[in-house]
Design goal:
2 strands; 196 residues; elongated; single chain; mainly alpha; 9 helices; two-stranded antiparallel sheet
Length: 196
Amino acid sequence: RSTWRQFAAQLWMDCRGVRQSPFFWLVLALTALSMWGHAQGLRGELGGQPIYPTTALLLDFMRTEMVQFVVLAVIWFSAALVFRERDASVDAVIDALPCPDWIRVASKTLALCATLAAMLMCAVAAALLAQEVAGFHDHQPGVFLEGALLYAGSHYAMMAVLATVIQALSPGRWGGMVLTLVAVVALIALPALGYE
């Protein structure tokens, strides 16, 4: 029981650390603006019939085109979360605390997943607003949430787990960021080269 309280407290501190970062708010704004711009680019006419930013088109954008912001967030926040104690020079004190080691790794991983979920929810809100402004009223919020959290979110969560593990095993922040970038680019590029 006390282990779960320690885990909840560590998760709260990690999430608060991410929320206090100006980069978090910048990434959220860029995500929303990118989704808005993509949705506005889908508007137009074809043969006299209006084209609307449908849910399927916007979910495809969320799964494929939004990956640039996700990669930035995964690389930056995995390093920031894992090396937070080292940067504050309290890592020796934290290592001596009477709590299981899995608590810190799991809380940092979940905080990174929560960051990615916040990005996806921001993109969903921007997409729903863009649909409403475009005059498309068949919003399908359930489909949006399912597509964002289950399909795109699960893929991005696996990326977050990999990044946290790489950062935890790397000797330095910047080396870990480079290794994370190489791993993420490989995950994205290898299927295009025929590897699965």
